[in-house]
């Protein structure tokens, strides 16, 4: 698949809440990219979908491990990239990160699923 096909497929799966497949496709896209800034964006998206999988399956320890790097990667996400609105996903990661301590027990909490990644308007 081309970069654009991988991107569109990853978005389709993310928006269908198939976070595992979206994560895999974002990782495939990451391997194809050469630009470090683009790779960091895609890495944040892949890790956000991995976080969604861990939250869905109740694997809070794995979610906690993602908190070592994901909040910083997500905080650096631009508002939009490749025509997609990323700000809501950036905000979701920050919201979830606030409920997961870096060490120790992870308290149960109501956590909403990640938002869809829509096209940037205007």
Mind explaining what this structure looks like?
With 122 residues, the protein is mainly α. It has a single domain, classed as Orthogonal Bundle (Hyaluronidase domain-like), CATH 1.10.3450.10. Helices cover 60% and strands 3% of the residues. It contains 6 helices and 2 strands. A two-stranded antiparallel sheet has the order 1-2. A hairpin with a 2-residue loop joins strand 1 (80-81) and strand 2. Helix 1 (3-15) runs antiparallel to helix 2. The chain starts with a helix and ends in a 25-residue tail after the last helix. The mean pLDDT is 94.
Descriptive labels:
122 residues, mainly alpha, Hyaluronidase domain-like, 3% strand
Task: Characterize the main sheet.
Answer: 2 strands, antiparallel
Instruction: Based on Cα principal axes, name the global outline.
Output: globular
End-to-end Cα distance: 29 Å
Counting helices, strands and paired strands, the structural category is mainly alpha
**Number of DSSP strand runs:** 2
Nearest-angstrom radius of gyration?
Answer: 14 Å
In DSSP terms (H or I, runs of 4 or more residues), the helix count works out at: 6
What do we call the CATH homologous superfamily? TTHA0068-like
The SSE string, one letter per element, is HHHHHEEH
Q: Strand content of the residues, in percent?
A: under 5%
Strands of the largest sheet, in order across it? 1-2
Q: CATH architecture, please? A: Orthogonal Bundle
- Total of domains: 1
- Weakly predicted, low-confidence segments: none
Helix-residue proportion: 55-70%
């Amino acid at each position: 698949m081309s970069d654009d096909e991988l991107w569109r497929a990853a978005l389709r799966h993310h928006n269908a809440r198939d976070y595992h497949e979206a994560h895999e496709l974002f990782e495939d896209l990451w391997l194809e990219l050469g630009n470090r800034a683009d790779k960091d964006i895609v890495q944040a998206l892949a890790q956000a979908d991995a976080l969604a999988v861990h939250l869905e399956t109740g694997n809070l320890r794995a979610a906690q491990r993602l908190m070592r790097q994901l909040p910083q990667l997500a905080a650096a996400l631009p508002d939009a990239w490749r025509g997609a609105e990323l700000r809501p996903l950036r905000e979701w990661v920050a919201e979830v990160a606030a409920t997961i301590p870096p060490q120790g027990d992870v308290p149960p909490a109501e956590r909403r699923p990640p938002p869809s990644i829509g096209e940037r308007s205007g």
